[in-house]
Amino acid sequence: MEWTKCSNVNVFPNGDGSLLPASTVLPNVIEKSQRSVIIHGLADFILIAEGMRIIIQNMIWNLRVPQFAPVAAFQIMQYLMGFRDTP
């Protein structure tokens, strides 16, 4: 697979001072929802799935540590979406 740029222009000439969505947007969305499903784009190879799992596991929402099994959830989604390895 060959990656190409969508623009030769520097879209952040003064840098990007945005706060990380994982520490600002994501906790806010989850706190306001009764249930949340987080699906990682495993097929795009840009984001690192393990890094996202660690971020989510280390978050605390509404003063509680989340109770879930992220590995099992990701394995189920991979199966449903057809991204399983073939022998």
UniProtKB/TrEMBL annotation:
InterPro entries named in the record: AB_hydrolase_fold
Top-level lineage group: Eukaryota
Protein name, as recorded: Uncharacterized protein
Lineage of the organism: Eukaryota, Fungi, Dikarya, Basidiomycota, Agaricomycotina
